[in-house]
Every structure is written in C-alpha cells, then in structure tokens.
Amino acid sequence: MQRIESTAALRAQVKAWRQQNKTIAFVPTMGNLHRGHLSLVDRAKALADYVIVSVFVNPLQFDDPTDLSAYPRTIEQDIQKLTSVDCDVVFTPTVNVMYPNGMTNHTNVTVPNMDDKLCGLNRPGHFDGVATVVIKLFNMVQADLAVFGEKDYQQLLLIKKMVHDLNFPIDIIGSPTYRERNGLAMSSRNQHLSDDEYDKAAELHKMLLTVKSQLEQGNLSFSEIEQQAMASLADLKFIPDYVDVRRSGDLEKAEKGDKQLRVLVAARLGSTRLIDNIACNLA
Questions:
Q1: Domain containing 29 — which CATH number?
Q2: Which of 36, 80, 120, 276 is the most exposed place for a label (fewest CB within 10 A)?
Q3: pLDDT digits (tens, 9 = 90+) for 210-220
Q4: Tens digits of per-residue pLDDT, 220-276?
Q5: Other Cβ atoms within 10 Å of 22 Cβ, number
Q6: Distance of CA 40 to the CA centre of its chain
Q7: CA neighbor of 29 nearest in space, from 5, 59, 53, 52
Q8: Backbone angles phi, psi at 86, to 5 degrees
Q9: Is 206 in the same domain as 245?
Q10: To 10 degrees, what angle do helices 126-141 and 7-19 make?
Q11: Cβ contacts of 190 within 8 Å, gap of 6 or more
C-alpha cells in the first residue's frame, strides 16, 4: 500500500490507473479507524479495481475546538489496518495541503435543507465543513465512486444531494451500519464510553427496533412513538437530543401515508454523543 501526502502525487497515480482503464473507489475518513471503516473498504474493493482511503481530521467540521483537539490521531495504527485489508493508497494530506491559504476566507459549500434539522441543529456549521472538505477530496481523488456508511445517514444524504446538484461524475454508495456484538453502532466515539456505559449504549439500537415495530403495527402516531422513545432513553439516563421519524429520501418529518421511513436518534451518555438510525419500510 502506498502512502501519498500531496495532491500532485495522488493525481499522478490516478492518471496511471486511468491509462490502464481501471476503476477507482474512494473512502474518506478522519482516521482512528475501526472495523466499521474497514467494512467500507471491503465494499469499495468489491466495486472497483483500486481503492483510495483518505485520513484527514477536518477542522472545518468541528463546532467545538476542544472536540477537535481531543480527536484521536492514530495514523500508524490506521496504516496497519488498511494494509491488512489490501487498500491500495492511503491519502494523508496536512491542513496546509487542504487549506493552503487558511480557513478563514476559504470558499465554503452549503447544502440547503440539512442544517435546519437533526444533527444540523445541534452542530452549527458542521455540515458546511463536511460538504466543503468532501467536495475538495472528490476533486483531488477523482474517483468513480465513493463509499459512505449509513450510520451517518444525514451526512450520506447531504453528500448525495451535493453530488446531484453540482453534477459531479461520481457514484455515492451507502454501506450498512457495522455494529458491535451488542448492537451498538460502531464508532470512534465508543472508545470514550466506560464499561458500564458501553453496555448501556446497546439500548439505543434496542429502542430503534422497538420504534420500528411500533411503526409497523400502526397503533400510535409518529409523535407519540417519538415521545415514548425520548422518555425511555431519559429513564435509562441518556440525555436525548432527538428521536425522529423522517422520510428516508429527504429527511423531512414523516406524515401519515409515508412508507419509506428512517428513524434517527442522537443522545448523550456520560460525555459521549452517540447517533444511530434504522430503516423502516412500511408495506
């Protein structure tokens, strides 16, 4: 596996592959990789001839400077893990490579109708930072397709909308959430949980399954189901940000008669903010 740090070297490698008529898949990450990330690489390998993974902790998407400084940088371990799954290139740009003229006056990309709901409300500016860095990485890598996890479902839809609106020639592939044995969605943030919190965190997925069952039974309104779920999390000592039933295609609030649904949750357990979601397709 090659490690590439400059845009010029990356484009030279991509050009060489293109001359061989090879296809390229891309998996953007912020490092501190776990098995969930590696499952995205596995999916990418099944879809293309070569796979590029980026590792870049993007300052633009952090609304809390403390959160940015505390984010684990584990590049040597990340490289070992990527080597173990036969990744072809790891792209590790510095902040100066990504933002050579600084971030204060950098052009930002805003995807409408995403910062007014769910995590967009709770993390001001976060999705502008995500959209901006992803569009830059797409331009640098110039891949045929990119793979994103469904755990960050709002982010996945944001990327799909951005690519569609801006006519980017890249396919966006969603990959199912990779879970711990107790059902907890795998996340770099899980390492901040104590042993007791880790066990309790499994209740998030159980709650989502309960909500899905209630939706399928159809005996309660969406708002009643949401309120019950919020109350159950609070009883378990979570601090819930939201439990929402949304339309899966655009994340607008679901209404009676909508069939393709997504149930999304964000809640704090101790000092750790956890997110998860589940699909619910009504007949």
A1: 3.40.50.620
A2: 80
A3: 999 999 999 99
A4: 999 999 999 999 999 999 999 999 999 999 999 999 999 999 999 999 999 999 999
A5: 14
A6: 11
A7: 53
A8: 60, 40
A9: yes
A10: 50
A11: 180, 184, 198, 201, 272, 274
**Token pair recorded at residue 40:** 């995205």
Catalytic residue among 37, 106, 126, 192: 37
Number of domains in the chain: 2
Compute the distance between CA of residue 141 and CA of residue 170 in angstroms, rounded to an integer.
11
Amino acid 115: pLDDT: 86
Backbone angles phi, psi at 270, to 5 degrees: 65, -125
Which residues sit opposite 261 in a β-bridge? 247, 280
- Residue 174 pLDDT exceeds 90: yes
Same domain, 126 and 195: no
Domain boundary among 175, 206, 222: 175
Provide the 10 A C-beta neighbour count for residue 47.
Answer: 14
> Could you tell me the residue range of the domain that residue 200 belongs to?
188-281
Q: Active site includes 164?
A: no
Asked whether residue 91 falls in the same domain as residue 123, the answer is yes
The two three-digit tokens of residue 67, written as one number: 């959160």
Q: Are residues 7 and 99 in the same domain?
A: yes
